[in-house]
Amino acid sequence: MNAGPGYWIDAAGHARTDTLARVAPSTRILDRIQVARGFTAYQHAVLLDRAAELVTAETALVVAPAVDAMYRDDDIQGVDAEELLRAAVSTLTNRCRETETPVVLTCHQQDALSAPIARHVDETIRCEATQFGPRFVGDQFETLVYPLEDGGVQTTLAFWEHVLTQRATVAAPGQPEVMLRGSN
């Protein structure tokens, strides 16, 4: 991550200072994160547009969790909600693509309203709740190990498949050689 600012456009209360402080590697990182929260779809759309104006090549990251959440409220429905969401997400993601700024979008719900958002992403990561914590799955990776409260770890079958595959390639025997009369 570069040393530039990060922008967090919040919806549905995902930006919690206690959580950010707990996961941030240092307080210097927190000083670079600017959080804005819209309480209606219209406010949220304006914030997404404003973030697009602020993004430069120096911007470290843009985060917009539950990007579709505000557009489901009773004060906005139907085509207006879809148009507003689609336009705001398009403006933001196009600007981030121009400046090569990473952007993280999450959806509150998978349905017709959130479907157009998928057109603006390069990679999709699924998050599933498990008894050991969140499991992340993408095209190139998945969660293999979960930390436990006692300091141990819980591994997955996929972890052991990876370990055994790597071990098999290292331990695979080469061509057997047979020595005849003391020489090859």
Structural commentary:
This protein has 184 residues and is an alpha/beta fold. Helix 3 packs parallel to helix 4. The chain has 2 domains: 6-122, Rossmann fold; 126-172, no CATH class. The protein has a 4-stranded parallel sheet. A two-stranded antiparallel ribbon has the order 5-6. It has helices at residues 17-23, 27-31, 41-54, 78-99, 157-171, and strands at 6-10, 33-37, 61-64, 103-105, 126-130, 133-137, 145-147, 153-155. The longest helix is centred in the middle third of the chain and has 22 residues, at 78-99. The chain is elongated, with a radius of gyration of 23 Å.
Present the secondary structure layout.
Elements: E1 6-10, H1 17-23, H2 27-31, E2 33-37, H3 41-54, E3 61-64, H4 78-99, E4 103-105, E5 126-130, E6 133-137, E7 145-147, E8 153-155, H5 157-171
Parallel strand pairs: 1-2, 1-3, 3-4
Antiparallel strand pairs: 5-6, 7-8
| CATH fold-level topology of the largest domain | Rossmann fold
Counting DSSP H or I runs of 4 or more residues, the number of helices is: 5
Mean pLDDT: 88
Our Rg estimate from Cα atoms comes to: 23 Å
CATH superfamily of the largest domain, please?
A: P-loop containing nucleotide triphosphate hydrolases
Biggest pleated-sheet summary? 4 strands, parallel
Point out poorly predicted stretches. Answer: none
Q: Which structural class matches the secondary elements?
A: alpha/beta
Following the backbone from N to C, one meets helices and strands in this order, namely EHHEHEHEEEEEH
Helical percentage: 25-40%
CATH structural architecture of the largest domain: 3-Layer(aba) Sandwich
Strand order across the largest sheet: 2-1-3-4
Ends: how far apart? 55 Å
Gross morphology? elongated
Strand count: 8
Level-1 CATH class name of the largest domain: Alpha Beta
Q: How much β-strand is present in the residues?
A: 15-25%
Number of separate structural domains: 2
